[in-house]
Amino acid sequence: MSIIVRDVGQTDYEPVWRAMQAFTDARDEDTADEIWFTEHRPVFTLGVNASREHLLAPGDIPVVQIDRGGQVTYHGPGQLMIYPLIDLRRAGIGVRALVTALEESVVCLAADSLVDAASRSDAPGVYVAGQKLASVGLRIRRGASFHGMALNVDVDLEPFSRINPCGFKDLAVTDLNSLGIGLDLEAARDQLLPHLLRHLGLENETIEYADAELPAAPAASANL
Fold first, then answer.
1. Measured between alpha carbons, how far is 90 from 108 in angstroms, rounded to an integer?
2. CB 72 within 8 A of CB 173
3. What pLDDT sits at residue 216?
């Protein structure tokens, strides 16, 4: 079965989140898996069980409580969002394997530029010299995944000082640009995708590139 890849450009956070929910709720055993790429306008997101004590001084940046795991993080321009909408049961992929695949795709992307990145067993994501480069947060519903990973490409890092990133006090955050990896979002997407598919064991699947159009989202009052 083919995998559909969509790049929907810069978006507000909530419509994409609602579209992911709608896609997951409507899919069946014949629905092709999809990977969505986007960058969001500035927003802080809180995981379903996140503590608001980690939200220090949001200021004028909106805060959205959502249904992924994890604590608080920031999304904004210059950050590549990778959303794998995958039927895990059909693909034979466990949740831990999906997290590892996301992390290792960034580790490999960094290694392409001779930068040593690594995941951590105590905190999902990818780190370089103790600084967080990418964050991972997922939701599994009806055996399928949504939400995903945020990779800092060339992002204003100041908003991360307004939170305890992912619930860790004084955690430093970095991006590819700060590490000397001069990619824009499009180049980062194109370099990351083959690594991700390989780590998912899906590198031999047919890739179809779809128009940047998301499924219709449910009403804003939909349940988390």
1. 26
2. no
3. 57
Domain ranges, ordered by start, for the chain = 3-209
Strand, coil or helix: 138: strand
Q: List active site positions.
A: 166
Sequential DSSP letters for 175-217: -TTTTT----HHHHHHHHHHHHHHHHT-TTSPEEEPPS-PPPP
Q: Is 56 helix (H, G, I), strand (E, B) or coil?
A: coil
Taking residue 219's Cβ as centre, other Cβ atoms within 10 Å add up to 6
Nearest alpha carbon to residue 84 among 125, 13, 31, 36: 36
Q: What is the mean pLDDT of each run of 10 residues along the chain (224 residues)?
A: 91 95 93 96 92 91 92 96 96 95 98 97 92 96 96 97 89 97 97 97 90 60 46
CB 144 within 8 A of CB 27: yes
CB 143 within 8 A of CB 100: no
CA–CA gap between residue 86 and residue 3 (Å, rounded):
9
Chain-centroid distance, C-alpha 70: 12
Beta strands per DSSP E along 12-130: 33-40, 43-46, 63-65, 72-75, 79-85, 118-120, 123-128
Q: Residue 147: name the closest of 206, 73, 200, 89 by CA.
A: 73
**DSSP 8-class letter at 74:** E
In words, the CATH class of domain 3-209 is alpha beta
What's the confidence (pLDDT) of residue 223?
A: 47
Residue 215's pLDDT is: 63
Spatial distance between the Cα atoms of 104 and 106, rounded to a whole number of angstroms:
5
